Amino acid sequence: MNEIESHLSKILKVTSNITRRKILTTLVQEGPTQVTDLAKYYDMNLNTVSKHTKLLEVVGLISRKKIGREHFIEANLEPIKEIDKWFSNLRSIWEIQLDKLEKLLLEDYKMSELSLNSSHTSKAPIETKYNTWLNPTLLAKFMIAGEGMVVSKAETDPREGGRFSIIMVAGDQELPHDGEYKKLAPFTEIVFTWESPFSVDGSTVTLNFTKVDNGTNIDLFHKKFLDEGSRDSHLLGWESILGHFENAVS
């Protein structure tokens, strides 16, 4: 601790006492005052007031002066500049942190705004389409996100709060994809989180199943991506998956 920091600590320690703060305030308001007159403002004896003023004097917040034969004390606010500077530095640090927080929140907001939508219609019954998404054997057949990819493992625990695990393989690289089922509304809707090497926290996928004249429509909605490039890459992957899905249910 350097000399300035040491002095600042002493000032803060002395002024942590409410009586000494009141004494300093009185001296600022009244100007040069004798200790005997100062004591009249407080419900304490002269000796106690004198002890408080001496402590304030030690850290430079009170100075003494002689006017004729009389001794007076007065407030000296020069040391307060050290406190002002310290608080100014704290404010600067705090503002920097707020700027960083604002930037992070803005980035998170931008990520949460990025989404994609893809639809697929086939003649398969709605019950078949819904159940296919929860069947690990069938998942392994259609969760093909790109040419040359395969699924080496697929596991599901199809209940709300249950999890699924899919390992996609591209060449000699394994790409684990996991998630948690957040909502399972039979033959209507499936909502799950999407956790992969390319996803961000909070990324979710919603599948809506609707009967149409020529069969069943699946509307896939995936939200929250790191950037537009990641979103566009996922869109290609989901379109490939939905294309292979048709083969799995036929």
Structure overview:
Helix 7 crosses helix 8 (228-249). Helix content is 45%, strand content 28%. The protein is of the alpha+beta class and 250 residues long. The chain has helices at residues 3-14, 18-30, 35-38, 46-58, 80-113, 126-132, 136-142, 228-249, and strands at residues 62-67, 70-75, 115-122, 150-156, 163-170, 173-185, 189-193, 204-212, 215-223.
Which descriptors apply to this entry?
7-stranded antiparallel β-sheet; 250 residues; 2 domains; 9 strands; 8 helices; Arc Repressor Mutant, subunit A; alpha+beta; two-stranded antiparallel ribbon; Alpha-D-Glucose-1,6-Bisphosphate, Chain A, domain 4; single chain
What is the CATH architecture annotation of the largest domain? 2-Layer Sandwich
Element string (H = helix, E = strand) = HHHHEEHEHHEEEEEEH
Question: Which percent bin holds the helix content?
Answer: 40-55%
Unreliable stretches covering 5 or more consecutive residues: none
Mean pLDDT reading: 87
Shape: rod-shaped
For the sheet with most strands, the description reads: 7 strands, antiparallel
Q: Helical stretch count?
A: 8
Number of strands: 9
The N- to C-terminal Cα distance equals: 76 Å
Strand order of the largest sheet: 3-9-8-7-6-5-4
CATH class of the largest domain: Alpha Beta
**From the alpha-carbon coordinates, what is the Rg to the nearest angstrom?**
36 Å
CATH topology of the largest domain: Alpha-D-Glucose-1,6-Bisphosphate, Chain A, domain 4
Determine the CATH superfamily of the largest domain.
Answer: START domain
Q: In percent, how much strand structure appears in the residues?
A: 25-35%
The domain tally reads 2
Task: Please identify the structural class as seen in this structure.
Answer: alpha+beta
